[in-house]
Amino acid sequence: MAQNGANPIICDLRDRIQHLEGAVARPKTVLPFGVSEIDERLPGGGLAYGAIHEFAGGGAGSVDGAAAALFVAGVAARTKGKVVWCLARPDLFAPALAQVGLHPDRVIYVEAIREEYVLEAFEEALRFGGLAAVVAELVRLPMVASRRLQLAAEGSGTIGLVIRRWRRQTEAGDFGHPTAAATRWRISVLPSEPLRVPGIGRARWLAELIRVKAGESADFEVGACDAQGRISLFSDAGNGSDQTRRSVHTG
Amino acid sequence: MPRVVSVFFPTLATDRIRRADPSIPAESPLVVVARSGSKRWLSAVDQNAAKVGLHVGMAGAKAQALVHGLHMVDADPAADLAALERLTLWALSQYSPVVATDPPDGIVMDTEGADHLQGGEELMLSGLVNRFLARGLPARAVIADTWGAAFGLARSMRAETKVIPTWKTADAVVRLPLSALRLSAETIVGLRTLGFKTVGELAATPRAPLSLRFGPEIGRRLDQMFGRVAEPIDPIRCPEIIEVHRAFAEPIGAAETIGKYISRLVTKLCLELQAKGLGVRRTDLIIHRVDNTIQALRAGTAKPVRDVVWLTKLLHDRIERIDPGFGIEKLSLAATMVEPLKDRQMVSGLVEAADVDVTSLIDVLGNRGTQRIYRLAPVASDVPERSVQRVSPVAEEDGQTWPMIWPRPVRLLDRPELIEVIALLPDHPPVSFTWRGKRRRVKRADGPERIFGEWWLRTSEWTAVRDYFTVEDETGERYWIYRSGDGVDADTGSHRWFIHGTFA
Q: Which part of the chain is the UmuC domain (chain B) (predicted)?
């Protein structure tokens, strides 16, 4: 996949299509992960602003959405400005978000009294513009709703991050249904980094890029967010440890 | 459908006197004495006086003979009414656009379309009663569909607050005594002589004989209580309130037309506010319909505002709540709660990007009534569930955060759940644990992190201890579990194990 200016004709064509597609002549910027292996898989070199991105947990994470929430918090932490977090189940523990670099002063929580009202708050916050990122924890995301949210995000240029968490693990098959999100990720936990002493090392996640617009899917084994919300790729070269496996690329 | 709150102050007259004259000892009984001709009788008694057996209507001389050291104050109905009016004006700025006095000892308000600013009906009522109580004024508040029902319930219940759900008024009032009906004393005595005791019995009796004997009043009061006859509240207004009106020659009803006139009214209101240097915190749109009923919408903002676009959006957002009925003949827009708003100099965007003010978004979401908006701020407490508090989204940003020494889970369970473990005491992590019917083998663990009870706040936590462990099972899922107690001394806790959160 040649993404950035490899072929001038393709690039020119892409620009013209973008020009025809939207009346909004907004320069499309992206939020890079800062990990070249991941960024080169994403069109533009990162998560696009003005788009919806979907994150779900794998296994037990599809219910608690813990890893997905932390992954999203890391993404939001690397933006600048206020973050609105829309949710219906207030079981998020704010100190954990602070530990990945999302300062409590930056996050405004919007707690809906019922699950249905999360969507309307999410859309309103996306349309507002001027926010760094808008996060929503959603159970259901129908195609029509996601299309609407995508348009709202395009209009304001705000990045919309959706955490999918279901009530039961069996419902998680819903993640196979298509939505208008620009990228879809599944974040599952892996056994943590082995240490030479008893104890728990840095958490590791399997980040599966399931779907990406104008790109191919891929799997990454990443180290969990650090205090600035940055993830890192797990590879032998990175930390010199001889016990970790090589990162898996399928795609 | 209106939602009427009736607030009843059982001891308004004596509380007013106590407030005005702090020299009256708190424990001495206090009564208010009224005169009719040469007769002196008690028109109000406080709680202390009621405890020693005095009651309203008793002769003054008898009360004096019964109780030693009785404080007697002459009645001043005008001052009582003035006090009630002040309370009503305060309620107008705080709770609802449609508020009226319900003399001699009550307030009535229609909170339809305004309760969401107080977090719902239940929270609104308890907040209202607590705020009066903090000022030394016991109160009881009921919300129901009709004024009659709310009035009767507030004056005949023991609880401080009660919420009667929509359409449930009839069930709630059938057991009320006749005195709840707002009838004259002679009528009630007459009805009692006939053997009537409750509202339900009276409602089930044929009307004609009753009207023949007592006049149409009973039927009217019953219909008002059950909501068959409208009973509009005539809202109190004070001259300081900035208000703009628009009357229509032809009644209007279409949403677009209403929207257009709301925009014009907001523009007019903002001009008036600007002339006075004020910003508005509570804006009331009062809709007068042709059938002489009033509907009100209240929009609240987190900070004083006089931005036309912003206010218009807040009101336009809720146009669908307006029921125009047969048409609207007058719209008025009032700035019920205002605060000074000075012009500020903005940072030019040349060098640094201007900070985006998110207050307008907060107001838009807050006025929907379907969202709670808050920020989470740190509290200096080691106990995890107490280390977080909700603060207003526009609260001062102090840059404080939680200590970063120990890892904290992303999801914290509402309350810790009991787990079955196999563990070596006193300070080893479990080898395996069973949570929600699933057994997990612990592969790696970290801990313990010992957290002591806050004995300086709660004596029950004098010796309490929790030992937290981070454990990881074979699939890599990490949990935050703790043992209540230090593993040696049984005084420090039950030594049972709990799960408290999930890491990512």
A: 18-146
Interatomic CA distance for residues B200 and B194, integer angstroms = 15
Q: Dihedral through CA B134, CA B136, CA B140, CA B142, nearest 10? A: -40
Query: What DSSP string describes A120-143?
Result: HHHHHHHHH---SEEEEEES---H
Query: Mean pLDDT over all residues of chain A?
Result: 84
Q: B504, A203: Cβ pair inside 8 Å?
A: yes
CA-to-CA separations, B439 to B309, B373, B410, B426, in angstroms, rounded: 58, 38, 22, 22
Q: How far is B29 from chain A (nearest CA, A)?
A: 47
> Mean pLDDT, to the nearest integer, of A132-160?
92
pLDDT one-digit tens code per residue, B419-430:
999 988 777 889
Contact B93, B336 (CB under 8 A): yes
Given an 8 Å threshold on Cβ–Cβ distance, is A108 in contact with B373? yes
Minimal-distance CA residue of chain A relative to B415: A91
B383 touches chain A (CB under 8 A): no
| Contact flag B388-A94 (C-beta cutoff 8 Å) | yes
Residue pLDDT, tens place only, B290-333: 988 888 888 888 888 888 888 898 888 888 888 888 899 999 99
Long-range (24+ apart) CB contacts under 8 A made by A118-122 are A118/A86, A118/A87, A118/A88, A119/A145, A119/A149, A120/B368, A120/B370, A121/A84, A121/A86, A121/B365, A121/B368, A121/B370, A121/B371, A122/A86, A122/A149, A122/A160, A122/A162
> Which of A185, A228, A183 is closest to A205 using CA atoms?
A185
C-beta separation of A145 from A14 below 8 A: no
| Sequence-distant (≥ 6) Cβ neighbours of residue B7 within 8 angstroms | B91, B106, B107, B108, B109, B128, B132, B139, B140, B141, B154
Q: Tell me: the pLDDT tens digits for B106-145?
A: 999 998 878 888 878 888 999 999 999 988 889 999 999 9
